[in-house]
Amino acid sequence: MKFKLLIFYLFCFFCSLLNSAIIEINQDGSGDYTVIQNGINASVVGDTIRVYPGTYYENLVIEKSLSLVSNYEFTGNENDIDSTILDGNYESSVIRLQGEEYGYINVYLCGFVVQHGTGWGYYHNEGGGIRSEYVYFTMKKNIIKDNRAYAGGGLFLNYTITDLIGNFIHHNNAYCYGGGMILVSYCDLIFNTEILNNIYLNYAGEGADMFKSYLCPQIEVLVDTFTVMNPDFYSLYAYNNGGIYQPGDITYNIQHSKIEQVEHDLYVSSDGNDNNSGLTAEESLQNIHYALTKIKADSLHHRTVHIADGLYSPSLNNQYFPLHMKSYVSVIGESRDNTILDAELGIGHIYARDFLETNAGFLQRDYSVKNMKLINGYYKPAVYIQKNHNVFLENIEIANYELWLYSLIRSLYTHINMNKIYVHDMQGGRSCYINGANGYTVNLTDFKINNNYPSEDPECPLGCGFWISNNATMSQPDYVANILNTQITNNINHVTDWPNMESAITILQWSKVNLINSTISGNESYTGGAVVVSYESELNVYNSILYGDIPREIVLDGSNGHTNTLSVQNSLVEGGLDGVLSIGYNNINWNTNNLDEDPLFFGTADNPFTLSNNSPCIDAGTLNLPEGIELPEYDLAGNPRIYGETVDMGAYEWQGYAVGEEPLDNSIKLTSAPNPFRNETVISFQLPKTGIVNLTIYNIKGQKVITLLDAYSSPGNFQANWKGVDRHGYPVSNGAYFAKLIVDDKEKAVRKLIKLRD
To answer: What is the pTM of this model?
Structure first.
């Protein structure tokens, strides 16, 4: 039937050619038009649009049958191809071909460079170079390069039958599917056997050169040059109707390759060269993704891509993100602070979600990503991992991301462990979304999640910490997450249309979380609390501090018959047991060693949540932890985890003195009332001897807000009113602040203040 339709439409098309016209486009004004789109709009079915050499910055839309050709069609001179450039200027697809379900169009494209198109955004995210739907499409002698998209970096083909004749499709990039091209529904590719095509060095999260759905027939890739001689799922990815990789659905016949794969560790540096061997630091490659394509490993021979300190970005040294991970291949930077991967507002850094039916149920497995900083991403997760096994993320900082209700780290159905992860200054999403099943246990150690907030777009009101879900039924084993040595602070969730939203941690759907030696403070949500437990989940809190969160610390949502369990031992929880919001029926175990008082954080700019010398949390923890869990050797600041009689509460261990603090004069103590406050608070202290006294308010970043007192003073009792304004008299935003008392240039006391919304 498809063949008969093709013959019918081709017959109609060629009949129309009998009355066709040639419309000339020339930028010097000698043709019919200087703008290609104007010529397309003026054309009728069957016309030919002849484009003379030049660079045309346009995003073309074709909705009728026609031919769009360069001078090459008439001269046969290949220089006419290189000199006739369609440049999308990274605004949208360079060319969009749009027929209708019952009205396919015929389009012939010949002799162009198609570049700098994008399908990289929320509303237009498919087909960077060419996007085609309901088209009989012939492509001859075109160069499709340097385009990017969410799916189909070079070509996005949907309901399209395509003849490929002598094209070059290379250096295109897609966040997830098909760097070179994606075939979505009822597409077919016909590779010319005489004038061969070339497809190489495209990059994507799945199917670097080609990605094909099960709705398209089996395809043989017949090319002169491909990326590698023996491609696997990394380059050519087809899946069946169950979403599983189908290795026999794309076959290939390749004459030459761009990359010869090696069974060896590889080295990358920001000033390297992809023409080097990459086998030593002195012969380093430049492109991380090139190294991942070049390296070859197996279960018996694990390999590593070593990344030297430096800045890696698309504009500086031609990097392609996200990095498509491989089994048994780790990517390890030289240092977290100085190995910097800058996406330059591209979407995502790390991607791994190739699905293959194996005995273990996993395709991608046994790799690590370590020692690097991921910055300046947009829209999608920085790290997206699904159905992987035995994955380690360690010593990674992620910052300056703007999401669209997604999460920076997204792990689905994966056996994963994460250690020393620092997430900060993110807009519009969650920091870490972990969705597991089948009784997995994940260890989340030494996390620091700080200062994440809603996007300026009102539709993205999230800026919070962990989402941990089993995504299962009650009949399946619990999904267990162990959170240790973790700080979740100053995150804001402004969702108003959903009850009981979290600002630090959500635990739901038969999940179990052990929260151990962690500090949760200064977070805010309009509804709910810092930690929300729902759908028959379990939270066990040990040696942790939950203080200063708005509107409360813990919510147990047992509505609709879902019973949750909360156990709190040797922890400080503001409001105590009475401060826990329990909806419906829930089980609560609250031991007598818990505290409900000010933890007396030290409050410096570098370590605002370490313990001051007179904190009640010192030596107040327990070593009686759940079976199989051992405390890390060091706290979140890298100091010994136990100092003194036993372990402290919180993510930071008191070391005999607060970090950066001299022992405080216990005769001086700051108090404040009310605290938290809305409009005004009164700060009080007693000065035992004459001295120069300075009382200053700082914000959570250590920046000075206002000085309330700075004078030489005799001993006595003092009070200072702070009306929640800065030094210019403007009201400050709600959140956490610190009042710091300095006498004779020595810090004597610190008091944390919480300003609520007016």
So the answer is: 0.82
